[in-house]
Specification:
Number of domains: 4
Radius of gyration: 30 Å
Structural class: alpha/beta
Number of helices: 28
CATH topology of the largest domain: TIM Barrel
Strand order of the largest sheet: 7-14-13-9-10-11-12-8
Number of strands: 22
Largest sheet: 8 strands, mixed
Helix content: 40-55%
CATH architecture of the largest domain: Alpha-Beta Barrel
Bound molecules: phosphoenolpyruvate, magnesium ion
Length: 765
């Protein structure tokens, strides 16, 4: 509860307290004093209005530590001398996680870090809020009291609103001098280490991915006009959402309807609207009000630690972002492209594959994300686009400005920000060297991939967009082993109609000429999302209602796609592959659907393909235990090792913490593949591997040792894999792998590396 100071303890309504603070902040900012004077003034005023014995401002330094920049209540000698290491103490936690910390007994908290020089031992309760702007934490604003108490929601709101104003003034330079700590961290050369997601080296300039709309004007001079803006924007937002509700795709009843209904109710929620209006009446602009209400509601929701509230929070974040876009006069959907530099290095906290596809690929050089793993779909898409990409680049977003020069070294996993001239020149050399090596691979272009002892291996290419098709000739691949059709769907604004799909598949086949193409039917779900196809939110989408499961439950979309493929393949061989098959009987149902489409087209006088092969992705481990039931029902199999390995090890491919924890070059996955290869031979079913492992030389060498003779990979991998095969003796690698599996060795990868070294096998990493 916020109360009056001094001898008048009567409670104040929070908006009044907020308004008082806002007015005083405005006065402080208008004063002549320097940056330090202003910060001192701010902490004094907050302490006064919030009746806090202590109010302090910590600001972030270049190395991520926090420096006490101003304090009312702590020992003055601690100011500018107390530093907290990155993540240290409750204040460090507030800064690292960007969350509000509200502790009645701070010193009892396990994260508490005691600093004797501050004299803070007599204070019990602590409330800390991040000072942040466009998701960048600049510092922390803290109040402390002697009495142990949990600060009220109103207190939290007042402090958060103040932090917003402080952040704005720090960044705009209104608190001149104090911003140095932040500015320095974003002006010097720096290297951030991450994990390579997609091979390559890129030099270019930073583009920050969808920086959230930055609210620049916080305080309004005319609340009535702001209320009007807010009301108009709310009306527009609601109309957009109602319109979304009318779409054919989502108009049928089902779980997705319930989810959407809840979202729509939120958009019409009177409580939300009231809070927004109150915040505007309290002196904020409509935009600032959206941000503040979002922050304070998020703090409350985070306290309710269950799935329901997490979903509500996501709804709230989505709605707030949309409302900010409407207020800024932009389309509620994110759009990109127009102002992209021609050598863009895209930097983001997180990115989905569809979002990456929003960008003009001809201008994209590199991608850096703070999360992401090599198996995630955004990595797959980056590879397909030939973009050097790095994941796990912790803190990168905070350390760059749009337009900074940057180098993405996706060979070592390093991101160089604002590199020196020497670094740029060294990297330019590296890029030239790689180009020369590429030339060497070019020289192998027309040579078939045959081992030294005469074993022919078919090297196919993975593709997903029509623009990938020229790579077929460039790389010298034998065909397309995996055409991920969902990528095209992700690019569209609406579900592509029959004629558009037919045209696309026809063009792909035309481009491929005599070479075979395997079309995989829609694999939507997991981290592949279609913006226009509302799906129910699921706790574990990778294991949820995706791919063949959707096809069998909602056959309309599947049948339309198959019809388009059958029409496109008229008169020639057509290969259709079904993703995420879990049981043999699913293929029976799928074939029945395909047969229906064949019958329909025949009835209407269309020419069918001369041959139709229906295969399955081998991605779900259950199939391993029913090979004799499954294999007779398919014409071919392609191992999706990305998914197979994630399900085999129960290790989420998109979660970098666990994705590379277990090695694919270890007995369990290798034995699984061996079992499959053996059974497939018995049933005379051809097997390909089309997951990421097929494009890595050491892994591909091992696959050949397991008996695989067909591999499908990103076009850039064809050269290195061919060079490996040309220097390999298949009989020897088979014996080596057999040995390794026999004795169940732990150091399988190392022993395979040794084998390659001893035998002179070319492993280009
Ligand atoms: C796989 O799972 O290995 C695969 C090739 O499919 P995707 O990566 O598209 O899931
Ligand atoms: Mg898969």
């Amino acid at each position: 509860m916020v109360t009056r100071r001094g001898d008048d303890p009567r409670p104040l309504p929070s908006e009044t307290a907020l308004r008082v603070i806002m007015r005083r902040l405005r006065e402080i900012m208008a004063d002549d004093g320097d940056g330090q004077d202003k910060l001192d003034g701010i902490v004094r005023q907050i302490a006064g209005v919030m009746v806090a014995e202590v109010c302090s401002i910590y600001l972030k330094r270049q190395d991520g530590s926090l420096e006490l920049f101003a304090s009312e209540g702590l020992n003055p000698s601690a100011v500018h001398s107390t530093r907290l290491k990155r993540g240290e103490g409750l204040v460090g936690k507030c800064s690292e996680l960007g969350v509000t910390v509200n502790e009645p007994e701070a010193s009892n908290h396990p994260a508490f870090s005691y600093r004797p020089e501050t004299g803070e031992e007599i204070y019990h309760s602590l409330l800390a809020v991040p000072i942040s702007r466009s998701s960048q934490v600049l510092g922390v604003l803290v109040v402390q009291n002697r009495t142990p108490k949990e600060y009220s929601d109103e207190d939290v709101e007042v402090l958060q609103a103040t932090a917003m104003v402080v952040a704005e003034n720090l960044v705009s330079g209104a608190v001149a001098g104090t911003g140095a700590a932040i500015e320095v961290s974003r002006s010097q050369p720096m290297v951030i280490e991450g994990e390579p997601l997609s091979d390559g080296i890129a030099l270019g300039h930073v583009v920050l991915h969808e920086p959230r709309i930055v609210v620049t004007k916080l305080l309004s001079d005319n609340p009535a006009a702001e209320i009007f803006r807010l009301d108009v924007a709310l009306e527009q937002l609601q109309a957009q959402i109602d319109e979304m509700f009318q779409q054919d795709e989502i108009s049928v009843a089902g779980e997705h309807r319930d989810v959407l209904e809840a979202y729509r109710m939120f958009a019409h929620d009177k409580g939300w609207q009231r809070r927004l209006r109150e915040a505007v009446e309290g002196g904020l602009t409509a935009d600032a009000a959206v941000e503040r209400v979002q922050n304070s509601m998020r703090t409350r929701m985070l306290r309710q630690n269950d799935a329901y509230w997490r979903e509500r929070q996501r709804d709230l974040d989505d709605l707030s972002d949309r409302l900010l876009r409407v207020l800024a006069g932009r389309s509620a959907r994110v759009g990109h492209g127009a102002n992209l530099p021609s050598d863009a290095i895209l930097i983001a906290r997180t990115m989905g594959p569809a979002e990456l596809l929003d960008y003009d690929r001809s201008k994209l050089r590199g991608l850096v994300v703070e999360d992401g793993s090599a198996q995630s779909h955004v990595a797959v898409v980056a590879k397909a686009l030939g973009i050097a990409a790095i994941g796990q680049a912790t803190g990168v977003v905070e350390r760059v400005n749009s337009g900074d020069a940057a180098i993405v070294d996706a060979v070592t996993g390093e991101v160089h920000l604002r590199p020196s001239a020497e670094v740029i020149s060294a990297y330019s050399d590296k890029v030239r060297f790689r180009a020369r090596r590429q030339k060497r691979y070019q020289a192998l272009h027309d040579r078939p991939a045959v081992t030294k002892d005469g074993v022919r291996v078919s090297l196919l290419m993975n593709a997903g967009l029509l623009v990938d098709m020229p790579h077929l000739a460039e790389s010298g691949a034998d065909g397309v082993g995996l055409y991920r059709t969902e990528l095209q769907f992700m690019l569209s604004d609406a579900f592509p109609r029959l004629d558009k799909q037919t045209q696309l598949y026809r063009s792909v086949l035309q481009e491929a000429g005599e070479r075979p193409v395997v079309f995989r039917t829609l694999d939507i779900g997991g981290d592949k999302v279609l913006p226009y196809l509302r799906q129910p939110k699921e706790e574990n989408p990778a294991m949820g209602w995706r791919a063949i499961r959707m096809a069998l439950d909602r056959p309309e979309l599947f049948r339309l796609q198959v019809r388009a493929m059958l029409k496109a393949g008229a008169g020639r061989q057509l290969r259709i592959m079904i993703p995420m098959v879990t049981a043999g009987y699913e293929m029976v149902a799928i074939r029945a659907l395909i047969d229906r489409e064949k019958a329909f087209l025949t009835q209407h006088g269309h020419t069918l393909p001369s041959e139709i092969l229906v295969g399955a992705m081998f991605e779900v481990p259950s199939l391993l235990f029913d090979l004799d039931g499954f294999l007779p029902r398919v014409d071919f199999v392609s191992v999706g090792s990305n998914d197979l390995v994630q399900f085999l090890f129960a290790a989420d491919r998109t979660n970098a913490r666990v994705a590379s924890r277990f090695d694919v070059l270890s007995p369990p996955p290798l034995r699984a593949l061996k079992t499959l290869v053996k059974a497939a031979k018995k049933h005379r079913v051809p097997v390909t591997v089309c997951g990421e492992i097929a494009g890595r030389p050491l892994e591909a060498m091992t696959l050949i040792g397991l008996g695989l003779r067909s591999l499908s990979m990103a076009p850039a991998s064809i050269g290195p894999i061919k060079a490996m095969i040309l220097s390999l003796n298949a009989e020897n690698v088979t014996a080596c792998v057999e040995d390794l599996l026999k004795d169940g060795a732990k150091d399988v990868r190392m022993r395979l590396q040794q084998f390659a070294e001893n035998e002179g096998v070319e492993i280009d990493t």
